[in-house]
Design brief:
There is one protein chain. The longest helix has 22 residues. Helix 5 runs antiparallel to helix 6, helix 5 runs antiparallel to helix 10 and helix 6 packs parallel to helix 8. This protein has two domains: 88 residues, no CATH class; 108 residues, no CATH class. It is an all-alpha fold and 222 residues long. The model has no long low-confidence stretch (mean pLDDT 87). It is 66% helix and 0% strand. Bound molecules: zinc ion (ZN).
């Protein structure tokens, strides 16, 4: 059964990665079929098999030999593994929805340096559909978190407003204590990763936030 979950998750990962890549690219956005972003050739179904296609094509487009980024493969494997993890959680549907929205947010940030508002809307919808108890207190907590973070972002100019909205959306599902853990792990991992890089780019924070969110969910004792 776990293998089926993994396969389904990796298919979902393939779709999420392609959607995130197409976001903001007008020439690809309206294309219904999967095409190569370089030569615009329509891809046959056997080139779209998650994980396997990447290996037998040796990470290159069949037509123009343009490189298929390694992070496509990472996304497919990661989504497969996370699907197995989520399905063993006591709230599988909630976990799956959250995890895949966060992966989409991470990948759009990696590719385009932004987090689409649809991610925050989706997280809010997931929260509402999960029929939360004591939602009034949670809304107050959400409101305080977003105000404080906006203030921090405004003063420091180091935190993007997309990141602010993402952290606030995460706060709908976890306590303040866990949220602080998420921010600490994300900041530390971003700092370590960026220090190890020769070329210093602007840090894209959503992948670190999503990663630390998974860590906090994984280690329930935190
Ligand atoms: Zn191509």
């Amino acid at each position: 059964m776990d293998l089926l979950y993994f396969l389904f998750g990796s298919c979902l990962g393939s779709w999420i990665c392609a959607s995130a890549y197409r976001y903001n690219l007008l020439e690809l956005k309206n294309e219904k079929r999967s095409i190569c972003p370089q030569c615009h050739q329509k891809l046959p179904f056997y080139d779209l098999i998650p994980i396997i296609s990447w290996f037998y094509l040796k990470g290159k487009c069949r037509f123009c030999h343009h490189e298929i980024p390694f992070d496509h493969l990472v996304c497919e494997v990661l989504c497969g593994l996370l699907m197995v993890f989520c399905m063993h959680h006591h709230e599988p549907l909630l976990m799956c929805s959250l995890v895949y929205v966060l992966i989409y947010a991470a990948y759009t940030d990696i590719y385009h340096g932004l987090i689409p508002d649809r991610c925050h809307v989706m997280m809010f919808l997931i929260y509402v559909l999960s029929e939360p108890a004591e939602w009034e207190m949670q809304m107050l907590y959400f409101f305080i978190v977003i105000c404080v973070l906006y203030l921090v972002a405004y003063i420091s100019q180091g935190l993007g407003y997309g990141d602010v909205k993402l952290i606030a959306s995460m706060s709908l599902f976890i306590s303040l204590y866990k949220l602080l853990w998420v921010i600490c792990i994300a900041s530390t991992s971003a700092l370590i990763f960026n220090l190890s890089k020769r070329k210093k780019d602007k840090i894209r924070f959503a992948p670190y936030l999503s990663f630390s969110y998974f860590v906090v969910l994984l280690f329930r004792t935190i």
